[in-house]
Amino acid sequence: MGDQKQPASPVGPVWESIYSEGKALNRYPFDQVVSFLYRNFDRSRPRSETRLLEIGCGAGNNLWFAAREGFTVSGVDGSPSAVEFAQKRFRDEGLKGDLRVADFIDLPFQDGSFEFVIDRAALTCSGFSAAQKTVAEVRRVLAPGGKFFFNPYSDRHSSFASGKPGPDGVTIEISGGTLVDIGPIFFYGKRDLHALFATGWKLVSMRHVEYLEELEPLYNCHAEWIVIAQKV
């Protein structure tokens, strides 16, 4: 499933620690990813001809679903522990997938390799300049007209106000909300999203989703964006 090497991504060390302790090894796909894929794939073609890449694939739960449904899947993550877990699960269940340890800003794939790329709250753990480089790489590996599912955290999230400003726009030392102890996070506002997709992209959809916990003392707002951008 591809050679492994330790990535240069600053996200790697934080999440490698989390995954190596057996935490966040999700087994089932996120509903937003399932909806995105089923609403957008070309039903006139065999599913095996639809190629899907996930950046920050973690334990491979989203790709596990897609592979079981017959799509051709690839994934990269900065954590060797997560990729090893995902590879073993694929092997044990007889599924095919190209799962690799790699850096988001230097994707090990040829131009135009995929119809879809997905990112479920992985890139949001990088600073804005790294995100810009990654989005340029995503555009490179997408086929013409291909779509990118981008799901970062929002600056209306309770955890945003609980942290401190860090380098390259990230928030550090988060002490409240639902995002404690997962490292630096870049919380996106609407302007950030428009800036990120200013060149070579068409924004197809940009939804803001909030989940409110109303019971004290747990009151908080978990806020995120669900963005679909198309390569033009």
Task: Throw out a few tags for this protein.
Rossmann fold; 7 helices; seven-stranded mixed beta sheet; single chain; disordered N terminus; two-stranded antiparallel ribbon; alpha/beta; 232 residues
Describe how the helices and strands are arranged.
Elements: H1 12-20, H2 31-40, E1 51-55, H3 61-68, E2 72-77, H4 80-92, E3 98-101, E4 114-120, H5 128-141, E5 142-151, H6 158-162, E6 164-165, E7 171-172, H7 190-196, E8 201-213, E9 220-231
Parallel strand pairs: 1-2, 1-4, 2-3, 4-5
Antiparallel strand pairs: 5-9, 6-7, 8-9
Description of the structure:
With 232 residues, the protein is an alpha/beta fold. The protein has a domain of 161 residues: Rossmann fold, CATH 3.40.50.150. It is 28% helix and 26% strand. It is built from seven helices and nine strands, in the order H-H-E-H-E-H-E-E-H-E-H-E-E-H-E-E. The chain has a seven-stranded mixed beta sheet. Strand 4, helix 5 and strand 5 form a beta-alpha-beta unit. The longest helix is centred in the middle third of the chain and has 14 residues. It is globular. The two termini are 31 Å apart.
